[in-house]
Amino acid sequence: KAILAYAPDPMQLSVYIGAFEHGYTVDDIDPFTMMINGVVSPYSIYGGEEHPDIPGVAVRITFKFRDFIDSYETLLGNRLQRYYVSGRFNDSTSFAAGGEVFIWGLRRGDANLDDVVDIGDPVYLVSFLYRGGASPKVEIVADANDDGEVDLGDALFVINYIFRSGPPPEK
After folding, report:
1. Residue 48 and residue 19: Cα distance in Å, rounded?
2. Phi, psi (5° rounding) for residue 162?
3. Residues of the chain scoring pLDDT < 70
4. Long-range Cβ contact pairs of 67-74 (< 8 A, separation 24 or more)
């Protein structure tokens, strides 16, 4: 299942780690030292969980997905994203484990965040710029021509792309 970077669902995700080297077990982990991507603190940590892909017992680490997404730069495009979990055992020995999650990122030019660059995007931008419509939720995505500003040029860039086979919005 792909996870949408701009509309996370579920709001929380869990990762499992276990099968530690050198005789360490889940009971040896100092839960207060655990981090995801070096910056995200877990929402909850449960030891003694079973997981079909991990022999023995594992630790289930649950974190808020928005914090996870915010630990990366703005994700333009879809990609398999690496993450890592780090911490220390009670004797201060460090450990790290990692995995991958597929994140369905943002698309430059998709100003209304409906996951397609179409006529709705320049209409959204014109409404925002000249009719008091809602502002783009992610400015970098609304900046279709990547000039650092959200303006009429972005709406025209998308129209040129859709109707005149112009260059696509850059990633």
Report:
1. 12
2. -75, -45
3. 1-10, 171
4. 67/40, 67/41, 68/13, 68/36, 68/37, 68/40, 69/5, 69/8, 69/103, 71/36, 71/37, 71/38, 71/39, 71/40, 72/37, 74/105, 74/106, 74/138, 74/140, 74/141
Q: Answer whether 0.70 is exceeded by the pTM.
A: no
Q: What is the pLDDT of residues 34-77, one digit of tens each?
A: 998 888 888 888 887 888 888 888 888 888 887 887 777 777 77
* Tokens found for residue 81: 């994203």
- Rounded distance between C-alpha atoms, residue 125 and residue 143, angstroms: 10
Q: Which token pair is 37? A: 């991507």
